[in-house]
Specification:
By secondary structure, this protein is of the alpha+beta class. The chain contains three helices and three strands. The chain has a three-stranded mixed beta sheet with strand order 1-2-3, covered by helices on one side. The longest helix is centred in the middle third of the chain and has 17 residues. The mean pLDDT is 94.
Length: 78
């Protein structure tokens, strides 16, 4: 399944990729599954020599919370 996320990037010989998904709840906080998948994506991107620039979750702004979560900004994507 992780490989499917990079299929188009491989097809067009991309040097890097930003992966984005949303949480229907509107809360962009990452789940444990999001964190696990992100680690797998980082590993796969290294293997495929495609720089993973970020993995972002889009949601809605709330008081004291941005409308997105960036794994790069959080230090989880090198």
């Amino acid at each position: 399944r992780v490989g499917e996320l990079f299929r188009d990037a491989v097809r067009i010989s991309a040097a890097g990729a930003i992966l984005v998904h949303n949480h229907p709840s509107g809360d962009p906080s990452p789940s444990r599954a999001d964190e696990i998948v992100t680690r797998k994506l980082v590993d796969a991107s290294k293997f495929m020599q495609i720089e993973m620039l970020d993995h972002m979750i889009i949601g809605r702004a709330a008081e004291g919370r941005l409308p997105y979560f960036s794994f790069r900004e959080a230090g989880l994507v090198p």
